[in-house]
Amino acid sequence: MKTEIILSELQFKAVRSSGPGGQNVNKVSSKVVLSFDVPHSNGLHPEEKELLLTKLKSKISSEGLLILSCDEDRSQLKNKTIVTKRFLALVQQALVVPEKRKKTTVPRAVIEKRIKAKRNLSEIKQNRKKPRL
């Protein structure tokens, strides 16, 4: 992943924020919408593109655009930095490949301990019964 190339490929769009806020919301376009074209990116290897498309399937549109938005702050510049950081964290998290789990056998001591506990419990229950005459 080449971060500099990816950052140059990002497209930002300023939109009016929704919700309460009075005149500031009505006049100022402080919400920032980030869009990133995953299939046509030059900063990602083909394997990384496939990994992103599979892991972030719910966040990617049918055209292959990854769209994130931020309207947390009243400042457009702060919203832009927040959404950019969020985007980079999301992509880096999606590109992490988990290690494969190695199968291990159950140790003999653990098996013996379990069987011994079962025998002990069985003896306790046998001792609760009335003796047969």
Would you kindly provide a written description of the structure presented here, covering whatever features stand out?
With 133 residues, the chain is an alpha+beta fold. It has one domain (1-133): Double Stranded RNA Binding Domain (2-Layer Sandwich). The protein is built from five helices and three strands. It has helices at 3-9, 23-27, 46-55, 76-94, 108-128, and strands at 11-15, 31-37, 65-70. It has a three-stranded antiparallel β-sheet. 12% of the residues are buried. The model has no long low-confidence stretch (mean pLDDT 89). One of its GO terms (molecular function) is peptidyl-tRNA hydrolase activity. Residues 16-32 form the Prokaryotic-type class I peptide chain release factors domain.
Question: What structural keywords apply?
Answer:
133 residues; alpha+beta; Double Stranded RNA Binding Domain; 3-stranded antiparallel sheet; 47% helix; Alternative ribosome rescue aminoacyl-tRNA hydrolase ArfB; peptidyl-tRNA hydrolase activity; Pep_chain_release_fac_I; hydrolase
